[in-house]
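Subject: mismatched residue count in predicted assembly?

I count 673 residues in my input, but I want to confirm that the predicted structure covers every chain. Input:
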Amino acid sequence: MLNYTIRRLLFAIPTLLVISFIIFIILDLAPNDPTGNLPLTIPAEVRAQIRESLGLGQPFHIRYIKWLEQFFINEPLNIMEHWWGAPIGDSDSRLRVTSWMSRSPVVDLIVERMPQTLWVVGLSYLVGILIALPIGVISAYKQYSWFDQIGTFISMVGFSVPTFFTGLLLIVVFSVNLGWLPSIYDTTLKVTDFSSFMAQLRQLAMPVMVLALFNAAQLSRFMRASMLDNLNQDYVRTARAKGMSEKVVLLVHVLRNSLIPVVTVIALGVPQIFGGAIITEQIFKVNGLGQLLILGIENADIPLVQTLTFIFAILIVFFNLIADVVYGMLDPRIRYD
Amino acid sequence: MDLDSQTSEPVIEVTDLKTIFHTQDGTVYAVNGLSFQLQPGELLGVVGESGCGKSVTMMSLLRLLPMPPAEIVSGTVQFEGKDLLQIDDDELRKIRGGRIGFIFQDPMTSLNPVFTIGFQIMEPLREHLGLDKSAARDKAVELLELVGIPSARERLRDFPHQFSGGMRQRVVIAIALACDPKLLIADEPTTALDVTVQAQILEIVRELRQKLGMAIVWITHDLGVVAGIADRVAVMYGGFIVEYAHVSALFENPQHPYTIALLETLPGTNADGEHRLLSISGQAPNLINKPNSCPFAPRCKFAFDKCREQNPQLEMRGDDHKVSCWFDVEKNEARA
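Triage response: the counts match. Full output below for your records.
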């Protein structure tokens, strides 16, 4: 297993290099202009100078190699400096991946926005899983019962109604009409005591609900299908013939087998947490990573978009590996050697 | 085995068992009023084609069929003074695996792939006998040795996929025997295995039966196996027992046309020295029709009008030999 993991990690390096190159090409080919959002009164030659100063005058391959250097060498060195608190080499003249729109290092922007995204999207993922698994198990066990029918209906609604609609609906009901919950996520809120904790919960409630519904809709269907697959297996009959209680049959024998594919799906979904929920973050004004990406795209902030997209790619590759490793741990029939 | 001791209390007594399935195409009459009983230590062979209701009958006894679609419409199953079809689920659970062991057909799928063999054997031991972990482990080792699995203690940690088919079936047998059941129901336990492994398993069962003295129901469609191990044989067709006799009586003097046809299909050398494989012409009955006539009539060479109008009852014809047929094969005439 260890050998397999190391081999997969080594294989990931060329994969990621190719991905970063493709992202770079696509962003370069896109008809973007970093000065496009500047006031129209700025004359064309000044715009040209601005582009020149951002490094856009350089040939494609130079810009790509510069970015590689900044991302793979300068930024990690910078992080290490941060940890150890001591400068490594010539840290002042080292160029970092810098956002064109805010002139601040991209990594700093990400670090600023990471907590909000992890709170909102991460919590919604967790809540979604916690809702989905029991629903999936019960729906499968009591297939075609009223519980299953309602579960099927809700997950169909949750899956097919877009988050911008459910989000706005919740805002209209709970913020506008009832006035119970704030419609804007306040990032400056610090949790210091019970009342600020409650305030945090209240502002988390709606975005988390919107996203959790969506996640749960998907996962509960997976869970149900996987349980149904296993409930008809011969080993279930064997377990019953051994005199095991229905609880043991269901929650030990069937669940363990059914979780194998579901855990894979869950692991593969984790990168989305870091990717943020672009639409939901916009609606509830959560200044998370999704919103940062949108801002970057709107302002043709190529270093920001390039770096964010590439980090998502790393996470996806990494969690694919995690999914495979977890699969191997849950299913004794699978051994990677 | 002393089979004449009919006076002793039967281990299990099934009376008028009827099981149906509700399907989209209509009701399937899978088991149509079966009655049989087993004496202590007796081995009853149940033979018949696929789909004749053998497995459904045995699973009905322990209510192992998914309900719905299955429904046990009538009957009683007397076991240790209780009717298994009436007792509540908790009581039934104590009997399943505890007093009645069940061996299933396909050893490749009847073990849970994600748990170790040890876990799966120890489960019923801890549930029914209340053993603690180490006692259960010792007993599991003992059981695996009993069914002939070498280096049993080490193998407890192995998963089913690390065993061959024959070894897995031995594990399944060990699980069924775990709590010293009074009755063992084996549902085609050797069908999925190759012939040499099958012979080994049969040998194990024969030995165990002598050692443990339990009654066994052995479902198979292999008449050779039945001849080798059974005391009595029940021949099933279309959800009925059509002939029920001592094994030697059945093979020497078959009374039901279906049994006769079955025996003719056995590959062997006939008097002319020809090696020809025979089959029973026609299709196995569609159980979706309510059984109002003899189910074998369409394929029977002796069938006459009465066979298509009335269903014969299983009746005593001769010494401990029950047949359900309107035609007397011995006298070659219709029964009175």
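The two ends of chain A are 6 Å apart (CA to CA). Marking this ticket as 'not a bug'.
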